[in-house]
Design a protein that fits this description.
This protein is an alpha+beta fold. The protein has helices spanning 15-24, 63-72, 86-95; strands at 4-11, 30-37, 41-49, 52-61, 75-83, 99-100, 105-106, 112-117, 134-137. It contains 3 helices and 9 strands.
Length: 141
């Protein structure tokens, strides 16, 4: 089912510092840096690490992300798991009791994703108050 970790996303409060750290300490090359607006506004930077995208988000006008930073500080917000044929995988998981928060949609990043959450105590370690983990179409790069 899951083929790889498509992306991991972190909330940050200092984008320049995190970019510098990932370039100078870890030798990764900045893939993209931009401001995203779609009802909320945030700065986003991404690095490619093998098949996995490392995504950083700094809120500009994004109350949920601002609350996450205030309550928890910078850190991991969610994981996107890479799958092939996203609509088919969603149907398979729904039959197994996984609940999706709507249909697959294109995220502000341009990736085709579908958010899911575990209920009734299932795998509570995936549970996050800011953002649900989600499936990401494996071809969305």
């Amino acid at each position: 089912m899951f083929e790889f970790v498509h992306h991991v996303a972190y909330a940050v409060d200092d984008m320049d510092k995190i970019i510098n750290d990932f370039e100078s300490l870890f030798g990764l090359e900045l893939k993209e840096r931009k401001t995203v607006s779609n009802g909320t506004t945030f700065e986003m930077a991404t690095f490619q690490c093998g098949e996995t995208i490392i995504e950083f988000q700094r809120p500009i006008d994004y109350p949920e992300l601002e609350k996450f930073l205030k309550d928890r500080g910078p850190g991991l917000t969610h994981v996107g798991y890479g799958v092939r044929n996203l609509p088919e995988k969603m149907k398979e998981l729904e039959k197994k009791g996984i609940k999706f928060n709507g249909d697959a949609a294109t995220a502000p990043t341009g990736w085709l994703i579908s958010n899911f959450s575990f209920e009734d105590g299932q795998l509570a370690y995936f549970d996050d108050p800011y953002h649900d983990d989600h499936l990401a179409d494996a071809d969305s790069k």
